[in-house]
TrEMBL record:
Superkingdom as given in the UniProt entry: Eukaryota
Protein name per UniProt: NAD(P)-binding protein
Assigned protein family: Belongs to the zinc-containing alcohol dehydrogenase family. Quinone oxidoreductase subfamily.
Species of origin: Cylindrobasidium torrendii FP15055 ss-10
Keywords, in A-Z order: Mitochondrion, NADP, Oxidoreductase, Transit peptide
A GO term, aspect molecular function: oxidoreductase activity
Length: 341
């Protein structure tokens, strides 16, 4: 059965360089591979950066002479070699165990060792986004949060995919969270605000960045003695939050959504013994063995975090579909590919 894909021949603005292409059906899978149908694939900021050519990782998957977009997704095995000994079978739901498989397409032939089975009970939205945001949140909390009696984490961009996962996982770990967003009163959906959404997920406090200019708020937050800050923003607001950390704290940067540099006063290192470091999920996958990746993704499935909010775009033969995907606002987008009749 023929299928569609979102591909590009050169780097640039996604709305200008990405196009909808059609491809012939897949041959029978050879030994060690499986044919899959992609059920749902998210569009992440990093995917856009890869297309723009400004991300440290480059696309790795081609269809013909063009690159296929997409790093995450959930697929269903449609055919698998009879001699395969991986334990996977037709009908299984699988997610990528390695980066840059090119998930923005209807169907694919993939090595079985690049796939990890997930239960259907996880649901399409959770499964489609299981390989980047939740593992990032889990590993940062487990790796860098000091083992204090009462633990607090401060985080920027709390309403992002990683931010929401941090809130939920921290709550289950008995860790309290202070969560900064641009506007807590901004409508989220279902009649809720961003603050209500995060509080429902387990947030202890939700504050606007403007609260960092209030001396009473800063004094109160400084008194918490928080020893972990998760930064996906950078810029002046991140600097001001770092000043609220207690002694011997970790500041972990995994993004820079403000597109501004991170500047930290030298005194935080000398007098507060601050450790500032980075975290990149892609690098963890590169360094880990398959068994480690499988164990991590199994843990993510078991957590059964709240479904991420977003919209599903059905990718059909429509000249406006690329514009709809990349110019459709800031709501997180998931792609569902229809087969070609």
């Amino acid at each position: 059965m023929s299928f569609r894909a979102l591909t590009y021949a050169t780097n640039g603005a996604p709305s200008a360089v990405v196009r909808l292409t059609q491809h012939a059906g897949l041959a029978a899978p050879s030994a060690g591979t499986a044919n899959v149908k992609w059920l749902l694939s998210p569009v992440n900021p990093a995917d856009v950066n890869v297309i723009q050519g400004v991300y440290p990782v480059k696309a790795k998957t081609k269809l013909g002479e063009e690159w296929v977009g997409g790093n995450e997704g959930v697929a269903q095995i449609t055919h698998i070699s009879a001699s395969d000994a991986s334990g996977l079978k037709e009908g299984d739901w699988v997610i990528p165990a390695v980066p840059q498989l090119g998930t923005w397409r209807g169907r694919a032939n993939l090595p079985v060792d690049a796939l990890v089975k997930v239960p259907e009970s996880l649901g399409l939205l959770r499964a489609a986004g299981a390989t980047v945001n939740p593992p990032t949140a889990l590993l940062m909390l487990e790796s860098f949060l000091p083992k204090d009696t009462e633990r607090w984490v401060l985080q920027t961009t709390a309403n992002s995919g990683v931010g929401e996962a941090v809130v939920q996982i921290a709550k289950r770990m008995g860790v309290k969270s202070v969560n900064f967003v641009r506007d807590p009163s901004k409508p989220f959906g279902d009649g809720k605000t961003v603050e209500q959404r995060l509080k429902d997920l387990g947030a202890d406090e939700v504050l606007p960045y403007s609260a960092l200019s209030d001396s009473a708020t800063k004094k109160r937050l400084k008194g918490l003695g928080a020893r972990l800050m998760l930064n996906a923003l950078s810029g002046p607001d991140a600097t001001n939050i770092a000043k609220l950390l207690g002694p011997q704290s970790n500041m972990v940067s995994y993004g820079a959504m403000s597109m501004q540099p991170l500047s930290l006063p030298t005194g935080l290192f000398i007098f507060n013994d601050l450790v500032s470091r980075g975290f990149w999920m892609h690098k963890w996958y590169e360094r880990s063995e398959r068994a480690e990746r499988e164990a991590l993704l199994s843990r993510i499935a078991e957590l059964r975090l709240e479904e991420p909010a977003g919209r599903v775009v059905k990718v059909r033969q429509d000249t406006e579909v690329v514009k709809e995907i990349f110019e459709g606002g800031k709501t997180k987008t998931f792609l569902e590919f229809d087969d070609v009749d």
